[in-house]
Amino acid sequence: MYWSEFLTIALAHLLAVASPGPDFIVVTRQSMTAGTRSALWTSLGVGSAILLHVSYCVLGVAIVLAQSPQLFRITKFLAAAYLVYLGVQALRNARFSASSVTQTEPVRPAVSAKRAFALGFLTNGLNPKATLFFLALFTAVIDDSTPTTIQVAYGVYMAVATFVWFAALSLLLTTARVRDSLMRAGVWLEGGMGVVLIVLAIQIVATG
Fold first, then answer.
1. N or C: which end of the chain has fewer CB within 10 A?
2. Considering only CA atoms, which of 167, 143, 150 is closest in space to residue 17?
């Protein structure tokens, strides 16, 4: 009965999660600088944040947030500030040299699982574009008559699918051949990711 609705949601979610954004950049950076384990924990954090978005959409909080310009503006500034922080950190850490090209293990100490998870969770959870995306899903795509249990099931699917997507990306980026290619870019790649994060923060503040 709900297959048509589910397929629409699944397609929209696939397009959203596959498009480059803060989540993609953060997972890529973790893969390059902290290794597979940290990247997977970050991916789990991103996937878990989906449940946060789904929860407040089911509870109707997203509608309240969207109808309160001041509250939404505060959320946007918090998200932008966090992305700027991540961008500045990336720029500060952009110091890989040619000597690290042949290394297959992270040059820096591994990030703790808790910290890696929090990084992914906050990056996605504070993203106002994610808020708008899920608000659109739960108001324009999901019918009002759809049972709450089905809506929650949609959310669980999107959370798991998000984790699987970024986990697969993490595993790909941390294979020896791919990681060696990333390491060759070294300082330029991480510096570029830092710049992109800051640009994304500016876009978040400037739009809407």
1. N
2. 167
**pLDDT tier at 72, thresholds 50, 70, 90:** confident
E strand or H helix that includes residue 88? helix 69-92
CB 31 within 8 A of CB 169: yes
Contact 104, 179 (CB under 8 A): yes
To the nearest 10°, report the CA torsion of 144, 150, 154, 157.
180
Q: How far is 53 from 192, CA to CA, in rounded Å?
A: 29
- For the record, the structure tokens of 14 come out as 């696939």
Q: In degrees to the nearest 10, what's the CA dihedral of 30, 31, 34, 35?
A: 150
Cα dist from 39 to 27, 52, 81, whole Å: 6, 20, 22
d(CA 164, CA 161): 5
CA distance 83 to 122: 10
CB contact at 8 A, 26 and 90: no
| Per-residue pLDDT tens digits for 2-48 | 888 999 999 999 888 888 889 998 998 888 888 889 999 999 999 99
> φ, ψ for residue 126 (rounded to 5)?
-90, -5
